[in-house]
Amino acid sequence: RIKASGLKLRFCTNETQATREKFVKKLQGMGFDISVAEVTAPAPAACRILKERSLRPHLLVHNDLVPEFAEIDKANPNCVVIGDAAENFTYANLNEAFRVLIGMEKPVLISLGRGRYYKETDGLKLDVGAYMKALEYACDVQAEVVGKPAEKFFESALAEMGVPPQQAIMIGDDIVNDVGGAQRCGMRALQVRTGKYRPCDENHPHVKPDAYVDNLAEAVDVILQQL
Amino acid sequence: RIKASGLKLRFCTNETQATREKFVKKLQGMGFDISVAEVTAPAPAACRILKERSLRPHLLVHNDLVPEFAEIDKANPNCVVIGDAAENFTYANLNEAFRVLIGMEKPVLISLGRGRYYKETDGLKLDVGAYMKALEYACDVQAEVVGKPAEKFFESALAEMGVPPQQAIMIGDDIVNDVGGAQRCGMRALQVRTGKYRPCDENHPHVKPDAYVDNLAEAVDVILQQL
């Protein structure tokens, strides 16, 4: 319905446990009309940064994300890229990433997101942000975060659509990463009362969505009504 | 020579990869006149805190340290104690410690030290401080640090000797954890130019030892000369 109305559409995700191909297949299976070219995700955003700055990464990421970096030179690394590596967050791999970083004259750490934790069927898991903090502390550096809520990430999505922030609206379930991040870029933002949403979000000390909707379908209704 | 002079002596260590028994055997093998009763170490200091506050720990520590907590009730944990767990810092163990913490109404995290990293024969390793930061961030808590440079830790050592800080002197190789920590307690402190010492320590922005000595033997000379 969004597409049929003539509005431009992009999907912004912090997913770093899989390539965009896998992510898109999953959403297609749920009935979404979506293609890889419509997805803004941290790994390709990081690849652009790596190319622009001639950075060669040591990767500490999920095995399924590695193909996103296929075209990037990884020999003789001069930065570390960390994502939600899940089972790859071993003691040995963390020490190795640390040694690469601490061995640099000026350590460069790029983190695909800054999430604290997330829930899976077998329980809560530490997210990439926790491991980012461990490396930041050990090396006395500050990571560059790629992904929501980084302004640059939203700006990429807007540039890909060719739309100024004032003419764009973000729909998301995460009060800080989706709503707060988009608003800081000058976009408006709706929070859906599904997924990560919690009632206490409505009393958030810093972030106030432009409106609440009960679910994604209602968000579409609200947007199309105002065209 | 220190003991023969009548001075009181204690050994303050942040060692958390082994019991005091193992630590003492190692030093005895190097020729030190030392017994377990003369050692102030983070694990027994943590045990005192656990008993005082009726805390039952979930332990994320090195296997060799576990015996130090033999007398502590660990059923139905209401806090997490983290030490340099080395190979025990697995993805599964970190997630488990995190779940115990996040499940508490008011998470209590006790960290045996806050070191960033250390060197072993096979290279640099992340120390307990890095994993402490990961859990702090994920749970939005601040850890209580037991061990140098915490004031309470030095105060314990002084109390065990029955000596006020003004009458005590610390000898150490670590400008921040040994020298800075002891001085903040009102003690004087010598830095030895061995071990962790680096020439740049002599330009440290915040900490200035009361004197430098080339090694431990010279520290003993200097102290005994001034009696």
Topology, pairings included?
Two copies of one chain form a homodimer.
Chain A lengths: L10 E2 L7 H10 L9 E2 L1 H11 L4 E4 L18 E4 L8 H12 L6 E4 L4 E4 L2 E4 L1 H12 L4 E3 L4 H11 L7 E4 L2 H10 L3 E5 L18 E3 L2 H10 L2
Parallel strand pairs in A: 1-2, 3-4, 4-5, 5-8, 9-10, 10-11
Antiparallel strand pairs in A: 6-7
Helix pairs in contact in A: 3-4
Description:
- Two copies of one chain form a homodimer.
- Chain A is an alpha/beta fold and 227 residues long.
- Chain A has two domains: 42-145, HAD superfamily/HAD-like (Rossmann fold); 164-226, 3-Layer(aba) Sandwich (Rossmann fold).
- Chain A has helices at residues 20-29, 42-52, 91-102, 128-139, 151-161, 175-184, 216-225; strands at residues 11-12, 39-40, 57-60, 79-82, 109-112, 117-120, 123-126, 144-146, 169-172, 188-192, 211-213.
- In chain A, the strands form four sheets. A four-stranded parallel sheet of chain A has the order 3-4-5-8. In chain A, strands 9-10-11 form a three-stranded parallel sheet. A two-stranded parallel sheet of chain A has the order 1-2.
- In chain A, helix 3 (91-102) crosses helix 4.
- The longest helix of chain A is centred in the middle third of the chain and has 12 residues, at 91-102.
- Chain A is globular and about 55 Å long.
- The model of chain A has no long low-confidence stretch (mean pLDDT 95).
- The interface between A and B is medium-sized, with 28 and 28 residues.
- Chains A, B: GO terms for molecular function: inorganic diphosphate phosphatase activity; metal ion binding; phosphatase activity.
